[in-house]
User: Fold this.
Amino acid sequence: MRYGACMSVRSALDRSPEIVIRGAGIIGLSVAWSLLQKGIRPTILDTSSVNQRASWAAAGMLSAQFEALIEPDVSAGLRDFSAYSSSIWPEFAAHLEKASGAGVGYRPGPTLGLVRSDQLSVLERDNRLGGSIGTASDTFLEQSVPGLEAKGYRKVLFPLDGQVDNRAVLQVLLHVCADCLTDDARVMQSADILVDCMGWQSPDVRPVKGQMVSLKPDASHPQIPVRWGAAYIVPKSDRTIIGATVEPDNASLDTQESVSESLLASAFNLIPDMSQNAEILERWAGLRPMARRQRPKIGWLDEGRHYLATGHYRNGILLAPATAELVVCDLLGEPPPVAHDLSDLRP
Assistant:
């Protein structure tokens, strides 16, 4: 499937079933929009407010390269699927913008990763560093991350790791899928196929709370995403996001001022100049959906009736386009969009 194509493809289906998608986060909406491109109108059921969705709380990073390095148990299937999804994001973003007339804030890489020398040695030993990854020059750092004082870290550039404005993407998808949305749970009664995109509320998926804080943009802030471990600084046009905590099995959206202060202190320790004009815009929390071994679950739970597309953990934004393609291919009985082995992503 390609997002520019608008075909009525039903030949792979025995009939025209009523498809209900539960969850209007970026995964559910991307699946719905991709079905619409095939001439198939699903119903999207969601009773939550927009700001309660993981897609709203995220930082919008498209970090296929960095995530493949820091996750100790990343599989070849997930790594390849992530790389594929990253490669189709420019097309996905462009078509969304054309369809809606609104921007989604897509920016190509690079992302700067701060990696301890001992960790980098392990990654090199295990052949987990791709050939496109390189060390950031002093000139580049002065222009893109002014004032960086990252003692003890190797400064590694991930040229393919970009970003989008996740909130803008979510709003655009809500706009283009508006006619499919409902909060009336009675639609479940007539569903022939249920596509479960409920995130941490899906079967066998755990919530992992993350607290974040944003600052008013300033010249002292980095111009590209900066990542170290699970922490990050991500500049947007209207805010600079600093995150995030990792709180497994915590389903509360409450925030603590002490946590925000700790996040800011971590960022300021790396870029001291950021502390000079730091104006806090927002504090918030989101719930990442983590499935077994931190891998998404995409496939039939009950053949022909119940389908899962959930458990994307930190990478729901990154994996949305590829997940949507895979779900639609499965629903239509077509071959997967990628030739890689996806068995470890199946339920």
Summary: The CA atoms of residues 12 and 334 lie 7 Å apart. DSSP finds nine helices and 17 strands in the chain. The longest strand covers residues 280-290. The mean pLDDT is 90.
